[in-house]
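sorry for the late reply, my laptop died twice this morning and i had to redo everyting from scratch. anyway the thing you sent over, i finally got around to it. pasting the sequence first so we're on the same page, its 587 residues, then the predicted structure underneath. double check i copied it right bc i was rushing
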Amino acid sequence: MEKSWYIHTKRADFRGIAERYGIDPVTARVLRNRDITDDESLRLFLYGGIDDLFDAGKLPDIGAAVALIRKGISEGLSIRIVGDYDIDGVCAAFIIYSCLRMLSAKVDYVIPERIRDGYGINHRIIEEAVSDGVDLILTVDNGIAAFEELKLAKEKGLSIIITDHHDIRTDDEGRELIPECDAAVDPKRLSSEYETRDICGAVVAWKLAELLLSDDEQLRMGWLRLLPFAAIATVGDVMPLTGENRIIVKEGLKAINSGLRKASEKKTDNDMGYPEIPIGLKELIKACGIEDKEITAYHVGFIIGPCINASGRLETALGALELFLSEDEEEARRLAWHLKDLNEERKAMTERGVEEAIRAVERDFPEDLVIVVELPWLHESLAGIVAGRLREHFGKPAFVITATDTEGISKGSGRSVESYHMFEGLQREQDILLRFGGHPMAAGLSIRTADIAELRLRLNADCGLRPEDLCEKIWIDAPMPISYVTEGLITELSGLAPFGNGNPRPLFAEKDLMAYDLRILGKNKNVLRFSLREKGRTPMNAIMFGDAEELKRKIEDRDGSVSVLYSPQINEYNGRREIQLSVLDIR
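ok and here's the structure:
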């Protein structure tokens, strides 16, 4: 996939910001590139902590939700939590269930099964709640679009509290449409006074828990014990890591690492008084083999999170929830290793799917600008993952369509690129689709199997894409000589973590460098280590991942003369520390 390099040109008084906050002008430029400009935003980003979190009371209907729950607890009413099968839904269910247990509520939970039930609350769940004598249903990470289902629930005499973070439907005049309920807590409601709309379902649940547990200090410590799960869900649900979300993730990671140190009695000066983390999370971290590492957003997003999601993809998400609720070390260890094994199975299925799909595309329709590929054997919960990998490989929007049911209907998921609005693309072909939904970068669909070939032809004919539209855009924070990099600057830039959506790792560029001493490493020959030197300057070590043999050949063809995109880092090995440049792209 071709990559286009773009340099941010946003303006500000970088030296003034640097002097005011005691930071390097380069760091000030990076913050400006993240649109962090006013003094309060800068203060929150650089120094914000738990006490700077936004007022939970500004969420719409949250006061009514708190009052109804407290009334239900005092009257001994039966409360049922309805969660979701992904990482956000699991963490949200854990948070609010744990909260209500601390308050001695009569509470239980259900989580829909991905294949049998689909997303969110449904008629079966409502009928079972009535049959079980439930008085109050509390949804987490779902419910704001469940109009028919919650109408039935109210007809059955149930009280309903919605906690969600998904978009609100509106009528033709722009008025919001809310399902029948007693309270609808969603930051995206038009009436919301909350400072941000971009929090995940688990954070909404955590905010509700904050108000429910606000009566004494012991309960507040119980609320802080739930912080890691708000952080895990924020990363796993790919929320922007700016503003309040960044504080939640930063402090949540501190809580996880502090809890791990308390468990191993390896306390440090960085321990912040957070309570010990639940046994289940501890055992999952151990099963993943990272208990001796400083847990970062990377570990959450790419190691811990996929294990949590694997439960809801291949079996039921109840496995992940029961792991976190477990108070028995042996049981928690067994459940954690089961999630780890499920994720290994998921990875193997994904790799097979990606390999087959790439072969099919290259063999049958290499010129298509919108990829549509059938993998009938693939578990439908993995279609989106495989589509994402195809998008990365080919640099094109990709749909993966899986098994046909007994009625001749197939389901698919798509992942897109910036230049193609996937939802609008499906909307143009809706006459041959049975169901579809999504947003610019991702979508899902149901289609008659006999119409898949027609869909592929029409999506490509109507996409309006040109080959040049499919170059990946890489945004550079600043051109910067590698000689400017110091250990102090690297330490300062690392303080901008956690990195992720909305707060990418700082990236710099430099041209007219000499690359030499090229060495291929790794059993898969996917690591190239080399030296980079500016004219008349001391060389620096660099590392790049990819097809190392191809990279080495390209550099040698240019006699070592290159331009690079890089992030500076500290490499520690055998007790030695040295500056190393992690190279993202090279020309």
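The CA atoms of residues 2 and 24 lie 33 Å apart.
thats about all i looked at so far, will dig more tmrw
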